[in-house]
Amino acid sequence: MAAYNITTDFAGLVAAFEAAPDRVESFVREQLKMAVRDIKEYAHDHHAYTSRSGALEREGLLTMVDGNKGFVSLSPAVPYGVYVHEGTKAHTIVPREKKVLRFVGRGGIVFAPRVRHPGTDKDQFLYNAADVQTPHIQVRFAAGLGQILEAL
After folding, report:
1. Which of 40, 46, 61, 151 is the most buried (most CB within 10 A)?
2. Residues 6+ apart with CB under 8 A from 16
3. In 3D, which of 42, 44, 37 has the Cα closest to residue 59?
4. Model pLDDT, residue 4
């Protein structure tokens, strides 16, 4: 799990918080809400995986703001999301209950006792979104904090 720290003028933040704690607390909360929204939207719009059912795009990302921390994560409602995000190694697929696997191949329906899957490439769309959005979030946070400090 990657963590990103978004910091700005810490001394200014402390001064503003001491002067107007309610205003700064609400400002930080709103900025965090916007930050997690921006990261989620960017991840949703800039992924490299091929969407088949649309479930990962519809229900696959969760956002939460708790105190002074914001979170964007993969939803447990879409359990394969972690495999899309982190990729998989090559592995063998065997039937669980039947004697053979059945699937559609290039020549039609294929039956096989086992299949060697080559694995999937990772598409770390959440990390990429956080990397791209962090500078924008920092600028917006610094500008808003500057406005609060000027008003004091």
Report:
1. 61
2. 23, 24, 145, 148, 149, 152
3. 44
4. 54
